[in-house]
Amino acid sequence: MDRKFILSCESTVDLPYSYVSERDIPVLFYEYTVGDKKYVDDMGRDPDALPNFYAMLDNGALPVTTQVNPQKYLEYFESVTQRGDVLHIAFSSGLSGSVNSAFIAAEMFREQHPDRRLRIIDSTCASSGYGLLVDMAADMRDGGSTLDEVEAWVMSVKDRIQHQFFTTDMKFFRRSGRVSGATATIATILNICPLMRIDLKGSINAYSKTRGRKNAIAETIREMKKHAENGTDYSGKCFISHSNCLASARETRDAIYEAFPNLKDRVTICDIGTIIASHCGPGTVAVYFVGDRRIP
Question: How far apart are alpha carbons 279 and 14 in whole angstroms?
């Protein structure tokens, strides 16, 4: 296929590397550290990487993630632009400062290579919601759209990529210091599941809570009905990601099939990668779809 430009992303799209590779989407890989050892956000290239990651969490490890620095971006951009003009869609600035490094590196790159085209977009999306945005951009690219056309489309739609998610496991939130021990203990005893979304800035907003996984799924479906494009007639792409709780992800998928007949057998389930899971821990399920403009 003769593509007009290179579409690029980062490993925090939380899609299988085999899939983005097959779609010819180059990836900049994030890294995390456990103790004094550094690991790459693997995207499923090594089937043992994610199980080993969760085993480390079970053993009390607290992974540390860091921003990607401008030099790493610059080296990456030098590589991918060898093939042509590049549109790079970056991880949400609401969750990481890495995109600022991408903008700095892009300016450095343009000074050195004024004849090459490199565009950067702050997706304000995360995990497989970010992946959904990139995947739809790849559809446009493969349909023959130009870099300018896809860039304009991404800018117009990124605020409408809905992220609805919940967690059934507060232990890691307590361990990582994101909630107090007392709060996590009470939530565990009462079986409370926080309900969260990504806001317009790409940051996490905990907007409600409920008791138990089934109620959390039901509330997620209700929110999807409210915000999905065309309501229950929604027929666009829908991704689910999960952190080591496939059964909950499948239960959520089945509830979507029941509520949204046009999505029957069309929902894609992905693993939450090691970077996002370093912050949410196990037990998180997220649903992504195209809808109305996200809540500020």
Answer: 14
Reported confidence tier of residue 174, pLDDT bands at 50, 70, 90 = low
**Adjacency order of strands within the sheet including 267-271:** 204-211, 192-198, 161-167, 284-290, 238-242, 267-271
Main-chain phi, psi angles of 145, to 5 degrees:
-70, 150
| Average pLDDT of the segment spanning 259-267 | 97
- Strand-pairing partners, residue 284, are 167
**How far, CA to CA in Å, does 164 sit from each of 89, 104, 204, 224, 241?**
21, 31, 10, 8, 10
**Token pair of 216, please?**
């959390």
Instruction: Tell how strand 284-290 and strand 238-242 pair up.
Output: antiparallel
Strands (E), the chain: 6-10, 27-28, 31-34, 37-40, 64-65, 86-90, 118-122, 161-167, 192-198, 204-211, 238-242, 267-271, 284-290
Q: What is the pLDDT of residue 191?
A: 78
Give the type of residue at 185.
T
φ and ψ at residue 151, rounded to 5 degrees: -60, -45
Q: What gap in Å lies between CA 249 and CA 286, rounded to an integer?
A: 8
pTM exceeding 0.90: yes
Cα separation, 213 vs 219, whole angstroms: 10
Dihedral sign, CA of 257, 262, 265, 266? negative
Beta strands in 160-260 (DSSP E): 161-167, 192-198, 204-211, 238-242
